[in-house]
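TA notes. Do not distribute before section.
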Amino acid sequence: GYLAWIPREKLTSLEPAKTPYSGISLSREQIVSRLDGVIDFTQAALKIPNHYLWGGTLGPNYDCSGLMQRAFSASGIWLPRDSYQQEAFTQSVTQEELLRGDLIFFGQEKVNHVALYLGEGWYIHSSGREMGRNGIGIDQLSLEGDTISLAYYQKLWGFGRVMASYRQEIFPSPIQADNLLS
């Protein structure tokens, strides 16, 4: 739902998609049936040497929302790109309602970090060097965790449940895209 930029000289290498993206409609039950795969993806990614990469959406190096987007898409569930967009896209739940596969959001003035709830008080995420593990790690959702878990817990924003697969409905028409180039 937001603009992306490409250098003008790269435009000649673009080719139109053979079929337009239309997203996929999934019921909540279909999403639930795929959440083990989402969790398995993140745990497999954890085992591969990695580091935090801002903007990273392809393994082995991810940022937080890139890891979530990639893990869900590997199971056929599409999420928006950034953590604040993922928070807006999900259905808000309370900590008491939290289920395996739900998302956990962190931030102060706005959401700027996301993690995947594993159950029993643990979550997996890709965190940075300054505040985190410089890559994918598992942390405790509690005031009882280590210093990194505690630092994130103090920035806890909320929780979200993926209820649908993301569909981007608005694309610029070719005429609008041409106008952006002039």
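Switch to the second chain here.
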Amino acid sequence: TEPFMKSPPKPFPYPLYVTRPFLPDLARYQERLASIWSDRWLTNKGRQHDALHDALRSFLGYDNLSLLNNATQGLCIALKALDIQGEVITTPFTFPATPHAISWNNATPVFADIDSRRLTIDPQSIESLISPRTEAILGVHVYGIPCDVEAIDQIAKRHGLKVIYDAAHVFGTRLNQTPIGQFGDVSVFSFHATKLFHTAEGGCAVSPSPALIKTIDLLKNFGIEDEENVSAPGVNGKLNELQAALGCCVLEEVQTELLSRQRVLSIYQARLASIAELELVRIPGEASNSLQYFVVRVPSRVTGISRDYLHNALRQLNIVTRKYFFPLCSTFPHYRNSLSVRIPLPKAESAASEVLALPFHGQLTDDEVHGICDAISYLMTK
């Protein structure tokens, strides 16, 4: 297909969203619901919870895994389990839940700049921000691009810091064949409906440490050890049976969604790579692609065409893109007014003004993806 079109594109008769939940066969889900009705067990580690727990351990390759009701709660619990109370160096280029989890633990987020190529937290920026109050690093694997985990590990060891990863975008990712959750002290995955694998709402924590996962299991259940002993100030972070049953069904069919997204990715890469005014955000060769998002950058300093122009023009054509992540978390009033440490964040600011997530899910047809590419090529080159 030609990379450029000469005539103005026509709007789609319906919106094409960035994500669309992958729904498994309804009859299969109803079978699991019937089992739940038969058991009369809706939460507190029933059969569906245990089935999903075991299936995910096998699928992802983690020995130590704890299911959670959502990833935000998971980050809060992970920080609590590690007893983090001081400063936590993190990235401003992320979803708000990342720094919010730090604040909810009465710790202080300190924002480091990002690596301009990876778009993940920059190890050099981390090192420059370490103070006597620093207790942890919270990195985010953005768009499926892993953080520089080896550099972060070295920094953490030198300074005696804990390492937490927000792994919302890296379900199934391996780095040089190693499951991404094997790095750091703990990683938290999101199973929100917008994710490739989901339980409608939910998440999980994984760790190389069985003791840490045991603590997370305790904290997600009110700190209750047994009927008569409560040993920690926990919360309610459990995944219920309805969510777990949905997750079991989604996991059984997730390969279908992965193949469909690979088809969409191939079209995007073949069509959009020809547009010199556009940069495709790519997964490094040493990492497997989680196929969570497809993201481009619009470097207006080079093209004269802004990301916001493209975003708004595509919206007029019923192509709903998202400016992930804009604005930067560091600009939120509650952080801007209370941060104890402030440094310039030029790379993060540049990325936030240039990135655009395109519609990317397995239900897109080839014609729809080609139509999106036609629209982008016209708008970028007219």
